[in-house]
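Field notebook, page 607. I keep forgetting to write these up properly, so this time I am using the form the group agreed on. The chain and the ligand, adenosine-5'-diphosphate, are recorded exactly as supplied. Prediction of the bound pose follows.
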Amino acid sequence: MARNRFNSGTTPEEELPKAKLNKESIKRAEGLLQYMKPYRWKFFIGLFCLFVSSITFLAFPAILGALLDAAQGKHKLPFIQPSINALGYAAFGILFIQSIVSFIRVRFFVEVAEKTIADIRKDTYFKLITLPMDFFANRRVGELNSRLSADLSQIQDTLTTSLAEIIRQTVMLIGGIAILIFVSQHLTLFSLAILPLVVICAVLFGKKIRAVSREAQDKLAESNTIVQETLQGISNVKAFANEAYETKRYDNSLRDVVSIALRGATLRGGFASFIVFCLFGTVVGVVWYGATLVANKELSVGLLGTYILYSAVVGAAMGTFPDLFANLQKAIGSTERVMEILREQNEPISIDPEENKTRQVIKGCLEFDNVFFSYPSRKEITVLKGLSFKATAGEKVAIVGPSGAGKSTIASLILRFYNPQEGEILFDGLTSESYALTDIRNQVAIVPQDVLLFGGTIRENIAYGKLNASDDEITTAAKQANAHNFIHSLPEGYDTVVGERGIKLSGGQRQRIAIARALLKDPAILILDEATSSLDSESERLVQEALEVLMKNRTSIIIAHRLSTIREADKIVVLEKGVVAESGTHEELIQNEEGLYRYLSQLQFEA
Ligand code: ADP
Ligand code: MG
């Protein structure tokens, strides 16, 4: 379920889907309440203030009406007969209370929403980055991220405004109707007969209009696709001289857009006239009927004024409900999706760094024992089919083989990004399950082919291998990695910002930073996944030198494309179609006339 929702190919700009409002969906969205719990008192105070402000707002029309009557020397309020000044003071007093509670309400609601959302954001982020690799295999990560942001903004909006509005408008609606009945039962009966009809029509109209405008958007997107596709494949269009055909296609699509837009305009125009007629018609009707009542001395002018003001309040409240409910539904849908992520099973990594410290030391012996593996996202293809090899502590083992043979997969399995379906991976003779996940990842380092540097300084990027490294340690590592000289020659040295907003480093330079990173980490087992294969010969020499330092005295798994770089390995494992085709030293393998290794090295030698 979760998978499909995030994978449905929708863009975040699209309207967030709504959830049905029922017991179940609300129950599923309940997790949100857990997050609000720490701030519940502020929330309740906010609620109380909201209630007070709604009630005081309701008192206004009554006071204004009473003022009108008092001005004419009439007092139609029961029990009390206040003076004009008393009413004026009361109005200001209420206004004052209103401002104070409104301030507190806004301030507290925003605080509760901001803090709740920040907590949820933090937890979803931690959850996301600790989810197992195969969670990401089926999703476009960018989309997941923007969908999550959209969901969280929706929840935040609802917490700060929609929720408050719903409560306020409910108070307005119920209070308003009660007062209307109190002021004049005749008029209330009269207008209540019309108003619901208007509201229902408005809601239906609104639904239809929304549907049409969504259709119009879809059509527009469709026609934009034509432009995009043809521009991308412009050489095809030109080569086939199909410009006229494409223009015709685009024109047709545009005509569709226009006709739908016009349908929308008709609806919208009709709706506007209808609303104007109905709303003002109701007002005219009420005033008309009210005037008769006033003429018959059944109602005072002030009460009629009060009545009209309250009907406006009630009408407005009714009008806002559809939107507010739509918002609430969206927020519940959003909450469900966020909670779904939070309920996913993550890798056993603690949010507390102390608990992730290494507990079980690995000396460096690594063994694959009859490992079968297929990626969870592509179960039908078995990548490793009974793979076995062993690297004793301190040994350099090279893994070679054609592209797609499963070399990088081996690296992923060592890091336990995935678990094999059959067979065992053993560290120092113990199965990988007998280690904590962080024990393994803390003691294995990988230098990949494409090094990704984070947007930060070079110093920070090197320290990624050991977060508490001192400046001395960082410089030493950089020197050993052949990186110190080039870093030193940059104007800002180790404080040079790299990554998207900083300078761009060459492949070899990034590689050497990655090596410095790995040196700082000081792993028991080192994996080099084609670490030098995208470099020119000069950088390759520098990187190769750095790698020699890094590999010294530790188990190294060297995945290599260029066979020239692995001649010195203690053992070479030749991988073909997920199994070991042959293994041995360079000298041994090159003797095998029929062997894949000999064939591959002949190919490269000739090249
Ligand atoms: P090599 O590094 O030897 O070139 P890989 O280990 O990257 O090969 O890939 C081995 C096989 O596994 C290939 O057929 C590849 O298509 C497949 N594969 C690699 N990564 C994934 C993945 N994340 N999900 C599914 N299949 C994958
Ligand atoms: Mg690879």
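OBSERVATIONS:
- Residues 1-14 have pLDDT under 50 and may be disordered.
- The chain has 20 helices and ten strands.
FOLLOW-UP: compare against the apo run.
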